[in-house]
Amino acid sequence: MHYVIDLKWVARFILARFILSFFGIATDVPIRQYDQTIVVFMFASCLLTHILCLYIFCVLSAFIYYGIKYQNGLISKDEFINISFKGVYPKRWQKGY
User: Transmembrane ranges (predicted)?
Assistant: First the structure.
């Protein structure tokens, strides 16, 4: 059986380990031994890290894909920025325009 390593999971793991070490939380202690506030805070910070990693992955993917279209002159610079970072597509691409 071949296992594929997904770079998003590696990045999330590294960021989670960094967050844990930054707040001084030992990784060899079971989580149920910590106070409920710390558990909720760590869950929230890991969730935010997950959302940040997803956003960065989507931005990089759009930047690469639509960067090629920008270099070929198929879209303008403003359209490229709006698509890559804001997720706003040009009106001419939408149905009815």
Answer: 9-26, 38-68
